[in-house]
Amino acid sequence: MDSIVDTFKRQARELRRQVRSGDDGALSLLRREPALRGLDAPQLTEQLRLRHCLAAVSRRAGLRGWSHLTALLSDKRATDFNALFYPDRRAAHWNIWFATYEEAHAVRVDHGGYLLPYRHQFFVCEGDFIRELGVDPDQPAWGRIGRDWVEPGDYDARHHLLGEWLRAAAGRHQDLGAEHAPAEGGGNQVC
Question: Are 66 and 51 within 8 A, CB to CB?
Answer without folding.
Answer: yes
